[in-house]
């Protein structure tokens, strides 16, 4: 009898213990909102070169309280590049026999940014087809430069000044400015420090060696006539998949009857907030 009472007591105690315990499932950690304290890549749009309306644009944004001068800064993306060198005499005439042309295979190259000043709260939007940009998007009210580049972005790197009486060497650099649908974009300052890295289109680091940014996950593919945009307020965690969203086509119906108005709009802070 005593044994039976003891067993009943143990069963009841164990049942009560189970009742008092709750199964708790934790949500994955949400990245802490921390606006960037540096120049950021804010929005990216591209249609492939095979598209009948192919064009690209990229937007930088300065969320800091100071003006950023891009002299000496570089922007890395996958492209083909050409380097042309020639000499000029004391009258600045080109010496025809001095021409040399070099073609480099497709790869990720650091392209010097134009020497521009981006003031606090301003944008820099670079496009290779301003007519199509105007047709398929609307410029926002943000201030800043709109840099119109040809698909063959040609600029002078430097002029090597030599002693008097000898020719000066001029280096002309040409990069094919059309963003791929899958790529990694790297922004570096004048000291060579990495300022921002954006991966999109299911980008996977191809090597060689270890991934230099192992915690930076790519966004998915960018649908036609849409873009990837940074969440409102220069949201920055260093992880592209957390920091960017894919814009909806203008007028998209959302659950609950709302309508999305987040089409790509350069020179405008993203309309989407990080929840």
Return residue spans where pLDDT drops below 50 for at least 5 consecutive residues.
1-25
Mean pLDDT: 83
For the secondary structure, the number of strands is 16
Helical region count? 3
By secondary-structure content and strand pairing, the structural class works out as: mainly beta
Strand fraction: 35-45%
Overall structural domain count = 1
- Major pleated sheet: 6 strands, mixed
**Estimated helix fraction:** 10-25%
Q: Which value, in Å, is the CA radius of gyration?
A: 27 Å
Shape: globular
H-E order: HEEEEEEEHEEEEEEHEEE
Distance from N terminus to C terminus (CA atoms, Å) equals 61 Å
- How do the strands of the widest beta sheet line up side by side? 8-7-2-1-13-14
Structure summary:
The chain has one domain. It contains 3 helices and 16 strands. The chain has helices spanning 2-20, 130-136, 240-243; strands spanning 40-46, 56-61, 68-69, 74-88, 94-112, 117-118, 123-127, 144-148, 152-160, 168-176, 183-188, 194-200, 227-230, 244-246, 252-253, 259-260.
What's the layout of helices and strands?
Blueprint: H1 2-20, E1 40-46, E2 56-61, E3 68-69, E4 74-88, E5 94-112, E6 117-118, E7 123-127, H2 130-136, E8 144-148, E9 152-160, E10 168-176, E11 183-188, E12 194-200, E13 227-230, H3 240-243, E14 244-246, E15 252-253, E16 259-260
Parallel strand pairs: 7-8
Antiparallel strand pairs: 1-2, 1-13, 2-7, 3-6, 4-5, 4-10, 4-11, 9-10, 11-12, 13-14, 15-16
């Amino acid at each position: 009898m005593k044994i039976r009472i003891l067993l009943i007591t143990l069963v009841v105690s164990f049942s009560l213990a189970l009742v008092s315990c709750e199964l708790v499932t934790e949500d994955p950690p949400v990245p802490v909102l921390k606006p960037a304290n540096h120049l950021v890549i804010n929005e990216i749009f591209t249609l492939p070169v095979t598209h009948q309306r192919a064009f690209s644009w990229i937007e930088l944004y300065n969320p800091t309280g100071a003006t950023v001068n891009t002299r000496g800064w570089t922007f890395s993306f996958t492209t083909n590049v050409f380097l042309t060198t020639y000499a000029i005499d004391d009258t600045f005439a080109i010496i025809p026999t001095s021409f040399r042309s070099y073609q480099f295979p497709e790869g990720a190259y650091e392209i010097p940014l134009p020497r521009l000043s981006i003031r606090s709260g301003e944008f820099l939007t670079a496009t290779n087809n301003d007519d199509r940009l105007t047709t398929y998007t609307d410029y926002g009210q943000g201030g800043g430069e709109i840099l119109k580049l040809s698909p063959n972005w040609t600029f002078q790197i430097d002029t090597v000044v030599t002693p008097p009486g000898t020719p000066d060497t001029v280096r002309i650099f040409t990069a094919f400015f059309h963003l791929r649908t899958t790529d990694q974009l790297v922004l570096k300052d004048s000291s060579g420090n990495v300022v921002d890295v954006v991966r999109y289109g299911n980008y996977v680091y191809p090597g060689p060696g270890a991934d230099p940014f192992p915690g930076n996950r790519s966004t998915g593919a960018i649908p036609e006539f849409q873009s990837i945009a940074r969440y409102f307020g220069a949201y920055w965690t260093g992880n592209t998949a957390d920091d960017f969203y894919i814009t909806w086509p203008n007028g998209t119906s959302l659950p609950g009857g709302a309508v999305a108005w987040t089409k790509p709009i350069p020179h405008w802070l993203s309309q989407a907030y990080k929840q």
